[in-house]
Amino acid sequence: MALLSVENVSKRFGGIQALEDITLAVEAGEIYGLIGPNGAGKTTLFNCMTGLYTVSSGAIRLDGAALQALKPHQIVKLGFARTFQNIRLFANMSALENVMVGRHARTHAKVLGAVFRGRKTRAEEADTQERAQTLLNRVGLASKGQVLACHLAYGDQRRLEIARALASEPRLLALDEPVAGMNPSERLQMGELMRELRADGLTLLLIEHDVKLVMGLCDRVAVLDYGRKIAEGQSEAVRNDPAVIAAYLGSEA
Amino acid sequence: MDIFAQQLVNGLVLGSIYALVALGYTMVYGILELINFAHGEVTMVGAMVALSVIGLLMGVAPELPGVVVVLAGILVAIPACMALAYTIEKIAYRPLRHAPRLAPLITAIGVSIILQNLAMLIWGRQYVSFPAILPSDKYALLGAQISLLQIVIVVLALLLMAGLWLLVERTRLGRAMRATAQSREVAELMGVNVDRVISATFVLGAAIAAIAGVMVSAYYGLAHYYMGFMLGLKAFSAAVLGGIGNLAGAMLGGLLLGVIEALGAGYIGDLTGGFLGSNYQDVFAFFVLIGVLVLRPSGLLGERVANRA
Amino acid sequence: MPEALRQRPRLAFAGLAVLLAVLPFLVGLGLGNAWVRVLDFVLLYMLLAIGLNIVVGYAGLLDLGYIAFYALGAYLYAWLASPHFGLHLPFWVVLPLGAMLAGLFGVLLGAPTLRLRGDYLAIVTLGFGEIIRIFMNNLNAPFNLTNGPQGMNRIDPVSVAGLSLGKPLHVAGLTLPPTTLYYYLFLAFVLLAIFVAMRLQDSRIGRAWAALREDEIAAAAMGIDTRNVKLLAFAMGASFGGLAGGLFAAFQGFISPESFTLWESILVLCMIVLGGMGNIPGVLLGAALLTLIPEALRYLGDLQRATLGHVVVDPSDLRMLLFGVALVMMMLFRPAGLLPSRLRRREFAAQDGVAEQEQASLYDAHA
Question: Alpha-carbon distance C176 to C25, whole Å?
């Protein structure tokens, strides 16, 4: 069974049909790419998957569990984390604190625990901090834990978003244009990080404009255009699909 | 006399005043997403200035007919309120346009306190009464009594709303206002002088508020430095009820709130078996406000706020 | 703090403790007992400000009806410990009940409104404050619950182990007036509140509040149940208010709707804005200043009488005006407050660097 399955999902905003009858399946362990021209509905689909939007019809399942009626925080708890296209860090918290917030779904301290700070709470805090630091190291921000998120360089902010999402221990990580605005060497690094994550057993869902990156990285891709899926399959096959060339590659080439 | 019809009439009169004040809230909110908390106080200043002029005129020219005196009062109150609103926007809101959301709201409260207390220093703690110089003719209407003043209030309010509607829909300024409300950045790129449009919005709302202030003091026969607070809250509730940012919504919300309040005050005793009396009139607006926000946050005529993530 | 003390935090701490312990005596001897009473009110407002700071400073929710929770606590105390209903429950029963009642109302009010945008919440809470006051003002008929505008009096003072704080205490040749006794009680509560607030701030919950304040959508996407976390902040703040209300009723022995107007809500808000939102020392400073300054302003009347021969402007009229001016000035020139928190200081300094984040609309109706 697919890890994430999207079944006949449609989304309307008033009179605008943003997504129409989208069906796709992401298998465990793969890197799945979602491409398409601007306004094709990629981010809308992300928002539907992660509970920011409710779908107008259709179903979304993570490992069999229906997501479409859940709130964002419940979806995170099931093991599905995301980043945002327009970086949404907690700007005035330090990098470390940002990642610690990412641990929220996996930690438990309540008000009483916070006030009395017993052994369990202290252990949890220490663990949270340690894991957060480990994740910072992993994405290459080892020395920047105390820097405010808003003072980080752009590429670092993107990396911090990924560390923050990883902190919730996802099975599936959805990245919305993770290399947007990065220079070529940063892009290579990011691609490398994604491969490593996959090697660790994480499944990745990727929205990306950079066709070269997507083709080189993804096992399979789906192409959206005007809210519809116009192609899906192995990267090479899709690349040569005439409909895709016409809709997307053609327009950019 | 039919209580229902009478309360309906009273409610419509009061409601048309709420609607006028609500327009000021809704216009500013539509463009800046700011609750201009001081708008109620601007209304109060309108009433106070007009009453001062009226008192002065009655002293120096007692032979003038009452209607002329009141008109003169209104004509002074309007520019006074416009200047006041212009100043408030320029000093207290404009510097904070890019500040965190809470900041302008807190200054708005500050301005409100300042105006109230200045008014108290100038006009005193006492109620200022509206002299009985307007004709007090009464007519029977469907089992209710309606006074000439009430008729004038409703008609004038409707005319003002129609005028504002035309201004927003048909003029260059109106187009610029609508464009700014849609997107400040894009309007700016298209050559709209956004600062001027925002000033114009405040000034326009204040002019209408001045008239509403005179109306409400003429209707109740008095004015008070504290009157703007409740009036403003109710008008804001009316704007939310209709769908904030929406002109037609403010008008509908105002009228509806007026009617709800009047009928509620008339019947609350019966409804609660005498437990609550008409002194609870002021709570209806808040229950309506909370009810609307819970059941239909976008208001009756408001569009669902677009989803952006 | 002088460098010598910074190196010896324990010494500084001990010094502060001694100062706090003898403060009422110093003030009582130097300025008279009336000022010890003012000191009590400083502590009471500190308690309120710490509570409201959880809501506004930590979680970024603007609550303009905070005093309603204070009123609930005070009225509950009066109902359960005064001749009004002939009930005389001890304070350690009534105070927690008051905090719980206020917290419950906080949840009832917050549950439907907290999913809305912040400024709507501000107006709804403001409306709630007025509703409570109107009810307190009118619930003397047909059934006398609140005694209407006259208010309720002869409320029981707090009594600890058979010792009433409402009567002077003679100990070791010293006479401690009730104001001094209440000073120690209030001080204990304030210290407790500071402890709780600081522990909360530096915890999983506190980080969730901060995240919520920074970016609600991102907070939700990090697994934070935004509605529950907001409700928690709102209810916590409300119960601090209810607790302070109970203490107020016991201390005064008399309450009326007069004490719970909108301007009291705004006053407490001013305290935290002036002092520095989110930062406990700032909040305490704000509460102290805004309680002391109006008291000091009373001397303006004497000053006018001495210099001009008569009172030209009643100082109590000027008080609110000055508040208004201070509020506007603070927002314009020092928006982070006198003692900004580490966080806020960074926030306001870094304003330009922060990508403009869309806080406006959230998710679809189900969220």
Answer: 9
- Give domain status of residue C307, yes or no: no
Inter-chain CB proximity A43 and B306 less than 8 Å: no
CA distance A123 to chain B (A): 35
Residue B309 at interface with chain A, using a CB cutoff of 8 Å: yes
Tens of each residue's pLDDT in chain B, 309 residues: 578 888 899 999 999 999 999 999 999 998 888 889 899 999 999 999 999 999 999 999 888 888 999 999 999 999 999 999 999 999 999 998 887 777 888 889 889 989 999 999 999 989 999 988 888 888 887 788 889 999 999 999 999 999 999 999 999 999 999 888 888 888 888 888 999 999 999 999 999 999 999 999 999 999 999 899 889 989 998 998 888 888 899 999 999 999 999 888 878 777 766 666 667 777 887 888 888 877 877 778 875 443 332
- The domain tally of chain C equals 1
Q: What is the ipTM of this complex?
A: 0.92
- Touching subunits of B (3+ CB pairs, under 8 Å) are A, C
In DSSP notation, C172-194 reads TTEEE-HHHHHHHHHHHHHHHHH
* Cα dihedral B11, B17, B21, B26 in deg (nearest 10): 50
Residue with tokens 């080892």: A142
Q: Are A227 and A41 in contact (CB under 8 A)?
A: yes
DSSP assignments along C293-347, one per residue? HHHHHHHHHHHHHHHHSS-SS-HHHHHHHHHHHHHHHHHHH-TT-SS--HHHHHH
Domain ranges of chain B: 15-227
Residue C72 lies in a domain: yes
CA distance C244 to C182: 13
Residue C164 located in a structural domain: yes
Sequence-distant (6+) residues with CB within 8 A of A221 are A32, A33, A34, A35, A214, A215, A232, A233, A235, A238
Size of interface B-C (CB pairs under 8 A): 138
Taking the CA of residue A89 and the nearest CA in chain B, the distance in Å comes to 13
Structure tokens at C296: 């000091």
In a domain, C314, yes or no: no
- Reduce the DSSP state of residue C157 to 3 states and report it: coil
Map out the domains of chain A with their CATH numbers. Answer: 1-67+170-253 (3.40.50.300), 94-169 (no CATH)
Q: Which residue has the tokens 């930062």?
A: C279
DSSP character at residue A104: G
Say how far residue C125 (Cα) sits from the centre of its chain: 15
> Distance between CA atoms of B18 and B256, rounded to whole angstroms?
10
Domain that holds residue C238: 32-275
Q: State the burial class of residue C3 (Cβ atoms within 10 Å of its Cβ: 0-12, 13-18, 19+).
A: exposed
Q: Tell me whether residue C338 is exposed, middle or buried, using C-beta atoms within 10 angstroms of its C-beta: 0 to 12, 13 to 18, 19 or more.
A: middle
